[in-house]
Amino acid sequence: MRWSKPRRSVAPASRRLSPGRLVPxxxxxxxxxxxxxxxxxxxxxxxxxxxxxxxxxxxxxxVLERSGDEYIGLLEVFEPLGAVSAKASGLHWKFxxxxxxxxxxxxxxxxxxxxxxxxxxxSFLLENGRGLVPLSCLGTLMPRILGGPVMFNQNSxxxxxxxxxxxxxxxxxxxxxPKLVMNFTAPVNPMIATEPGQLRMAFNHEAVVAxxxxxxxxxxxxxxxxxxxxxxxxxxxxxAASVPLMASFANNGRTIIVEPLPQAVxxxxxxxxxxxxxxxxxxxxxxGGGAPNIRRxxxxxxxxxxxxxxxxxxxxQLAEKDVTLALGRRLRQELEARGLATLLLRDGDSTxxxxxRASLTNSAHPVIYICVHAASQGNGVRVYAALVPAEAENRxxxxxxxxxxxxxQLLSRTAGSSLVAELQNKQIRARSLxxxxxxxxNITTAAIALEVAPLSQxxxxxxxxxxQQSIAGAIAAxxxxxxxxxxxxx
Amino acid sequence: MIPRYLIIAVAILLAITLxxxxxxxxxxxxxxxxxxxxxxxxPVAPPVSGSSEQATLYVxxxxxxxLRPKLVRMPLPVGRQERAAEILRAxxxxxxxxxxxxxxxxxxxxxNVYLVDPGLxxxxxxxxxxxxxxxxxLVEELTVVSLVQTLSANIPGIxxxxxxxxxxxxxxxxxxxxxxxxxxxxxxxxVVAQLQNAQ
Lengths: 490, 199
Prior knowledge:
The complex is a heterodimer.
Chain A: E1 9-10, H1 24-43, E2 49-53, E3 58-62, E4 64-66, E5 69-73, H2 74-78, E6 84-89, E7 92-97, E8 100-105, E9 110-113, E10 116-119, E11 125-127, E12 130-134, H3 138-146, E13 150-153, E14 158-161, E15 168-172, E16 180-184, E17 191-195, E18 198-203, E19 215-217, E20 225-231, E21 234-240, E22 245-250, E23 255-260, H4 265-269, E24 299-303, H5 320-337, E25 342-344, H6 354-364, E26 368-374, E27 380-386, E28 399-400, H7 409-425, E29 430-435, E30 446-453, H8 465-481, H9 483-489
Chain B: H1 4-39, E1 52-61, E2 66-75, H2 80-95, E3 110-116, E4 120-125, H3 127-131, H4 137-154, E5 160-165, E6 183-184, H5 185-195
Parallel strand pairs in B: 4-5
Antiparallel strand pairs in B: 1-2, 3-4, 5-6
Helix pairs in contact in B: 2-4, 4-5
């Protein structure tokens, strides 16, 4: 039985302790730890690695430094590719790959492969029975042993055995907003990270290679360029943009579509934004874009479910996803009316995974995240804070994905209490609870979820504009009331 | 003249024939009753020997949106794992009752409960349990917390609970309550304290 899932980490939003609160002794210890960490970081550079891509397996191996040259264990290189064996005898090291025999001698540059001489660019090394060859020889040594083509990019330390490279095309559509559509020749699953002004896709396990040029330029002000980077056995595609971006997959992972976050384009392009954002100042300009500034949001409103995922069937015709969208739109309107810049995570019938919702929210760095649900059971509004899983542990500066909310629980409950108080002021039944409800536990700011139920047995009330408006108004007022505490808590 | 023993033999044969005819005439009715009882999908607790013991079930009440403890007496097996499964099945029997305070879908079952040292309990639900469960944050939370708290209140030493469906991990129970993580019993106890106050 397997239940454990891969642990992921998320970088925390910046948090500072007030210096006035620090006891001098603690300050000294902290400074010492910081100094030691800095020295340690400087003294341990990033481990050098090589990535090998083949039809049998894609794998990564550490590269060794010997007398200033880069070396690699030959047995480790061939092991995932097929049947191998090696035997050390004195200074001789016999290596066998299927029926191909090779003979290396420690300290010598000449080896015999398939009965012929082969010159290594540096001496063969024998360490505790382990045969090491210069890294630079792999491009010529491997074809001799494998009997097939090998392409080795020594600068990026990426080696392709046979015709395994994954190529792609990239094109920005002329639609509004524009979309960058990338089509790959094989399914890919990169790690995607968003930063101000860019979206980065790291291909750690895929044999993705650059198109004709490493720098791609597009005829779009919003997505002006992208660059393909290869380094230390990995590849990355960095898309520059003037607005926050999101990526989605299609065609069984063969297509990646990068587009502006919903709501991200409109505020930047129109002059109708009623007031400057309350939460923070305008973000720094986008490198290379020369485009408008990025808007910062006080609140992220997330209408739950959407697309294929209907949520609860409230009546035979009314789906939860439709009610949450309508409520979310009204809530955004009410928050904006109070001067609180708000990002609506879903402004249409689109599918977003829970991880995507959390990633998009954490990238936007809002002061509060509000997830909207609807239910036919009970009455009034239930306001939830996260039940954070116990086994998740934060490691150093990185927060566990499942417990990212841990440091913000108090703030979330403060926000929840303010909302409940305001709802009760408006004679709407409200209750504060804790729930095991994702993605609350993945959010790195105050995070609450609302479950709106009808006030009576009449479930159709959930779809009533008047009822939705009264709920949205009360919630927005509650958020506005808690604004000072929320901002101070960050 | 017919011998007397022949008359007695014929009489006995006639009695047997009459008895067999009567039995055959009643047989279809018995078969039908047997089929009807097979259609009842409510889980039936296996016979348990031994004296009755007290157990605390944390029962969800949808009307008020609360969770309340209920003391019951029931025969329980000696083994911890069997006791755990038995207690949860008793809770489920309540939920599957016609007048259930928190109805579950037909065919909902606890497949098994595994106690994995140290302190970890794994509840394995059947697919019908999750597939037919009503969707909603509170209604799903009540089910999950009811199971976890009932288990931890009756089986000492349980600190974490994992819920599987058909032996596999599932993201949510019915679109809301998270099943991908482990439930920490002290944290769930806090949730229970909140859920004991009516809306």
